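Lab notes, practical 5.
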Amino acid sequence: MTPGTLVVGMNLQFPPEMYLDSNNQPAGYDVDLLNDLAKQMGVKLEIKNLDFNGLIPGLQSKQFDMVSVGLTATDERKQVIDFSRAYVPYTSVLAVKDGDTSVTSIDSVNAAGTVITALQGSSGEKLAQTTFPKATVTGFPDQNAALLQVATGRAQGSVVEDYILAQYSKANPGQIMKADLPEPLDIGYGSWGVQKGKTALVTALNSYLCEAQSSGKLAELYEKNFEVPAADFPQMPAGC
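Output from the prediction step:
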């Protein structure tokens, strides 16, 4: 870590979790949490905004100390980077064109000729591939581009976190909606990514997150940014 500075790689295109505000400044749940982390560590926070696909390679090449973009700690990713404990909960759903009531089960879209989109390189893309193995899964480097494929009828669905779908629908009413499936595609958690072997930093991050979880800080910032009552903050994994 650069002395006195915590350099964090992010992809600021996912309001309300992480985005650029009207003054072109980083904002959102992750940013609020990172500012509090930096304050607790007594260091300056520096954010580098990159495309999603450039974050893990950038971390490996030591462009920054950590990545904050809600990464799922998959076995594949664990081979090249280390992870903190979870800091944000996610619910993955299938977005379909507004008014499309034909999608009532996985089988109704898991078929040859069906196109499902997702953010390229994301856990959503992996989830789409395993959930819809018969369909054609296409990844896009931009989340909105993946959703636009559904809105314009070029794809039958898109795997996305529910909060991202809500934000897109708020900005683009009448385009897409959540498919009426019996249950979410997946419920998971995002973690901070750290350079391989940086155990001291992982330990420091985990210590901070355990304190933020027990003190209610995570729930407080989640309520502020996601507009979900703190009492409804999803239960985080045990282990503190």
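Observations recorded by the TA: The chain has a mean pLDDT of 94. Residues 65 and 225 are 25 Å apart (CA to CA).
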